[in-house]
Specification:
Layout: E1 3-8, H1 12-27, E2 31-33, E3 41-46, H2 51-67, E4 72-77, H3 78-82, H4 84-88, E5 95-97, H5 105-114, E6 129-130, E7 136-137, E8 157-164, H6 175-179, E9 183-184, H7 187-199, E10 204-209, E11 223-224, E12 230-231, H8 233-243, E13 250-253, H9 263-270, E14 278-280, H10 288-294, H11 300-313, E15 318-325, H12 332-345, E16 349-354, H13 372-395, E17 401-412, E18 415-421, E19 427-431, E20 440-450, E21 453-458
Parallel strand pairs: 1-2, 1-3, 3-4, 4-5, 8-10, 10-13, 14-15, 15-16, 19-21
Antiparallel strand pairs: 6-7, 8-9, 11-12, 17-18, 17-20, 18-19, 20-21
């Protein structure tokens, strides 16, 4: 029995695809081992969203080869798509696998091992090239994975990929070049997959995609409004159908664009018992001038309107976002406008990223590129603000009843707790030696154990 080790970098879609690749190897009789152990095959599911992600991908590939120089090292995913030339020249890599080849990973590895050629091997066709209008040349067609998960590493929560690709072309983003055009997964595949996982004991499903708000747009069934907002009927319908599957206790959504937030959408979600009022609403900057340079398709007034709409339908929704600091040309005044805007919105959590210059994007050629020092200083300021807002959001639950979906046992300061999350993705710990994983426990939140977790007493 050969041993395979995995390391995943990047987004929730990558996490889903890694689970699927692991499943493919398990079905063929391979043993999955921790990445730190000696293995016969190492698979690094790479990311390319920033320069740091590229560097981490290369580091993990070289670490794998160092762990076992005789092992087959596989580079899979987005880094392979955007720097094929660099990956081809890297002696630590034996096999390159594009995103659309992940479902066929076992056949690719076995063909490499039995072919007698220990040189580099890939079934990929022509490398992806950048063109002046930032569209893919060569192979332009993107397809979601033609397979479904039947087992999970985490038996409580599952990431479910229903969409791939992005056609937004934000000026800073390399992902459309790595993932291709928008394509939606067939509804029947998604529902069948979730049904099987729920029957196996999974209780929470995170519906995700590279650009989730575009789900169904390739089918052109959505109704556009005059202001650019649209009611994504396709997304609404599949969420409702998922909610009717036996065993599905919670449905959580991945990142959404502001323009998908409408009265119609929120009315449907508020009426769906299993829906989690946790909205990761993409922002990137709180300054309109910066948003224009980013080629984002909303302004701060529209974004605030959508946030207020969410709060109209839900009492205490978790609203989280992403922010890029140090975008080319971002002045000190523009940064301060963003900082003030974040406090005005009062997010639960803010994920802060320093702008990363990516070859092949419009922003790469913009003037006013900032130093790493400037970006680091601005990042630290926003992260400090975010930590304070997050603790204040969690304080709301003190002395309130909460429903906690238990995920795991954890020892904190010498005490064994059953730890999980409520629908708003606040973390709670309940004292108990009993394994409660997969159960929803009604409890009363009593105190902070630390800034990020509250202790609750079961009722």
């Amino acid at each position: 029995m050969k041993k395979v080790a995995f390391h995943n970098l990047g987004c929730k879609v990558n996490a889903y695809e890694m689970e699927l690749m692991q499943q493919k190897f398990t079905e063929k009789g391979y043993e999955i081992v921790p990445f730190s152990e000696k293995a016969d095959i190492y698979v690094i599911n790479t990311c390319t969203v920033t320069n740091i992600a590229d560097r981490k991908s290369r580091q993990m590939l070289h670490r794998a080869k160092a762990l076992n120089p005789e092992a087959v090292v596989v580079a899979a995913g987005c880094y392979v798509e955007t720097d094929r030339e660099g990956a081809m020249a890297d002696d630590a890599i034996d096999i390159l696998i594009s995103n659309k080849e992940k479902a066929d990973i076992v056949n690719i590895v076995e063909a490499y091992e039995t072919g007698g050629d220990r040189g580099r091997f890939s079934v990929s066709h022509a490398p992806l090239l950048f063109s002046s209008d930032h569209c893919l040349s060569g192979e332009t067609e993107n397809r979601p994975l033609s397979a479904s998960l039947t087992t999970l590493t985490d038996h409580t929560r599952a990431y479910i990929k229903i969409q791939d690709g992005c056609d937004q072309y934000c000026s800073y983003c390399i992902i459309p070049l790595a993932r291709g055009h928008v394509v939606s997964r067939p509804e029947e595949e998604t529902l069948k997959e979730i049904g099987e996982l729920a029957a196996g004991g999974c209780r929470e499903f995170v519906i995700t995609g590279i650009h989730l708000s575009s789900y169904g747009l390739d089918k052109a069934y959505n109704l556009a409004a005059g202001d650019g907002s649209f009611h994504n009927r396709e997304l609404t319908d599949i969420i409702k159908k998922i909610s009717r599957i036996e065993g599905v206790e919670r449905i959580r959504l991945g990142s959404l664009e502001p323009r998908i937030i409408t009265d119609e959408f929120l009315e449907e979600m508020a009426a769906t018992k299993s829906f989690c009022p946790h909205f990761h609403l993409s922002l990137q900057s709180g300054c309109d001038e910066v948003l224009k340079r980013m080629n984002r398709r909303y302004d701060t007034d529209e974004y605030l309107e959508k946030v207020n709409l969410i709060r109209k339908y839900f009492d205490h929704p978790a609203i989280t976002t992403d922010i890029i600091v140090g975008f080319p040309g971002e002045t000190e005044e523009e940064f301060q406008i963003t900082r003030d805007y974040l406090n005005r919105i009062n997010f639960y959590e803010t994920h802060v990223f320093a702008y990363s210059r990516r070859r092949g994007t419009v922003a790469d050629k913009m003037p006013g590129q900032h130093t790493q020092k400037t970006k680091s200083v601005r990042s630290a300021m926003l992260m400090g603000d975010s930590a304070g807002r997050a603790k204040k959001f969690r304080e709301y639950y003190l002395d309130r009843e909460v429903d906690v979906l238990i995920e795991e046992s954890e020892t904190i300061d010498g005490t064994v707790y059953q730890v999980g999350y409520n629908k708003e993705y606040v973390r709670f710990a309940i004292k108990s030696d009993e394994d409660l994983a997969g159960r929803i426990v009604r409890a009363l939140a009593k105190r902070f154990i630390n800034d990020e977790i509250l202790e609750a007493v079961p009722l």
